[in-house]
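Hi P.,

Sorry for the delay on this. The queue was packed all week, but I finally got your sequence through. Input first:
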Amino acid sequence: ALLRESNPPARAAAGRQHSLFIDGEGRLSSFGSAPPQVSGLLGHGEGVTQLNTLTRLPSTLGERAVSVSAGCVHSMALTAGGAVWSWGDDGFGQLGHGDEQRQWQPKKIEALAGQRVVAVSAGGLHNLALAADGAVWSWGFGRFGRLGHGDEQSQLLPKQIEALAGQRVVAVSAGSQHSLALTADGAVWSWGSGERSRLGHGDEENQLLPKKVEALAGRRVVAVSAGVAHSLALTTDGSVWSWGDGSYRRL
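Then the structure:
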């Protein structure tokens, strides 16, 4: 019940230059534009760099898609059976296929085949996946510790965040250079780049491992969202909390 409450299916997602949608039958569509160097972003095959109207992807996932997430240069989809598919640019392993090869169309992440994933979040150059057992997996560009493994190593394949193994995580959100996790007790954890105070720890220190946001202690958070340089949290009483870069009045 907590997982359902904290992870409503994302039937639409907006990236930097493209958008993704799931129709009533669980089929994927996209539109937008993609620079030549990331021309697989739209998922319609090699050479398709711009779509001005919503267009169904030519490939199917073999089962109904239930959630999508649009990153900066890549995309992800989650199916009803808990499988994760990715496509787009793969310069830092963010597609999770064990290499750095671009994917023109959706390809299943086989490294997660043994997990029933219930939520995915695509960041700038990294990703987070939440499994039904509460385990959190991350992969892609590791700079600033955004993957939560205690180092800055990039990961070509999904790797479980061991530092969260003792927590009952119910939601995750990947930002541009940082990550957020929400646990069943309403606590928020953050890690990655601390620049511009986006982690909420009262400083600008990078965090290589997940660290609880103590400023929200005593508040029961039910949803979190990580942006480029700021973060948001929603509590049970309907209050919204923000922290990080205040430029352009984004807080």
